[in-house]
Amino acid sequence: MVEVQFPFILIKTKLGLSLMDKVGRMRFSKKIGLISMIIMPLMGAVMIYFLIEGINNMLNYPSVSRAVRELGPRINISLPGINPYLPLVYGWIALLLGMVIHEFSHGAQAKAHGINVKSTGVIFFLILPIGAFAEVDEKQLEEAELRKASMVLSAGPVSNIIAAFAMLVVFVLLISSLKPVADGVLVLGLAPDGTAYQAGMRHGDIIIGVNEESTPNWNSFVKAIGKALKEDENITFKVFRNGFSNYTFVLSKNLSALGIMSIVPLKDVLENYSSVLTRSPIEAITIYLMIPTIPFPWVYERIPFSEPLQNYYTSIVFGKNYHYLVNLFFWIWFINFNLGVFNALPLYPLDGGIAFKLFCRKKLSNSISIKTINRIVYAVNIILFILVISIIIIPYIIQ
């Protein structure tokens, strides 16, 4: 069945209903629902923390607002093809998978608690698929016990989070299989009129030695450069570029004088990125949510599979083609995490918002009037709406 609500097109079907029914009857379904009901408010709190922290950073650090402003307003639209930093193939696979997981979980929990699911389907904005749905009977949901309704509503966001962290585990395992194609510092920026370029060095060269010193990481590179300066001798770079070459330069006071403008220590980048999980959970999540397609050096130079760096690593399991898998699992993690925590916000009409409204009406109706309850719900919605809008518009206000 096709339903048109221009510019939205809904394709409704009965596909998946029998599978939802089977999953809903399984023993573990209600237990998962109970766990989801407990977890979703925590997820909403995490999202509120990210919103407040983001606003705080923009207000206190103008460089953050400037960076977001440079990315453009489309960064806030999580649709591949519209958001310029969401890759089309990986983005759509991850988004559609996330939506199916989300809506199937709602439907399975509804079936587990005797609430009818009328249909399943996909929502299109013109020709773009922007959502999936499980059409749960809203009247039955509102009339259900608070506990049952909360389980149904929380199932979608929490399932996204479970899927996200499962993909994160695979992603981290893939990252742990990487190694630099050569242990050294990667040259990403060379001035065409500089001594290094004129001597034959090129963008993408990896400096693996300075004079007689090997330079597998940043510290060894700095130490070797310092030693050469101290001893007042010429500098010879041993370089890897599909083989090994040596380039000797007249001593200069610094690298920029040689025309070397940007270098990246490959081993250090990989080790720092791989060790993120040893830090605080919030810091680890924040770093693993850094988008590798953002065109800022302070972002992509920290991510080993970003486009400027991915060809300078290889996997001991998958070889040089590792980045296809790494990107796929990264984007599934990234989109499922964002779908989960955003939908957990107690902001209507998100899942968290509907659950919050039902909670207030069913728990507070015996002590305060429905009018007061509606005011509470309305006030919370206004506050959260202001937070969401603020994080979008502040970069364009703070100059």
Shape: elongated
Could you tell me how far the N terminus lies from the C terminus, measured between alpha carbons in angstroms?
Answer: 50 Å
What is the typical, i.e. mean, pLDDT? Answer: 88
What's the total helix number? Answer: 15
Write the layout of secondary structure elements.
Elements (H helix, E strand, L loop, with lengths): L1 E4 L2 E6 L3 H9 L1 H34 L1 H10 L16 H25 L4 E9 L2 E9 L1 H6 L2 H31 L1 E3 L4 E6 L4 H5 L6 E5 L2 E2 L3 H14 L3 E6 L3 E6 L5 H4 L1 E6 H9 L6 H8 L8 H4 L12 E3 L6 H22 L7 H14 L5 H28 L2
Task: Kindly describe this structure.
The chain has 399 residues and is an alpha+beta fold. It folds into two domains: 2-176 and 328-397, no CATH class; 178-312, Roll (Pdz3 Domain). Helix content is 56%, strand content 16%. The chain is built from 15 helices and twelve strands. It has helices at 17-25, 27-60, 62-71, 88-112, 138-143, 146-176, 195-199, 218-231, 255-258, 266-274, 281-288, 297-300, 322-343, 351-364, 370-397; strands spanning 2-5, 8-13, 117-125, 128-136, 178-180, 185-190, 206-210, 213-214, 235-240, 244-249, 260-265, 313-315. The strands form three sheets. Strands 6, 7, 8, 9, 10 and 11 form a six-stranded antiparallel beta sheet that branches. A four-stranded antiparallel beta sheet has the order 1-2-3-4. Strand 9 (235-240) and strand 10 form a beta hairpin. Helix 2 (27-60) packs across helix 13, helix 4 (88-112) packs antiparallel against helix 6 (146-176) and helix 4 (88-112) packs across helix 13. 35% of the residues are buried.
Précis, in short:
56% of the residues lie in helices and 16% in strands. The chain has 15 helices and twelve strands.
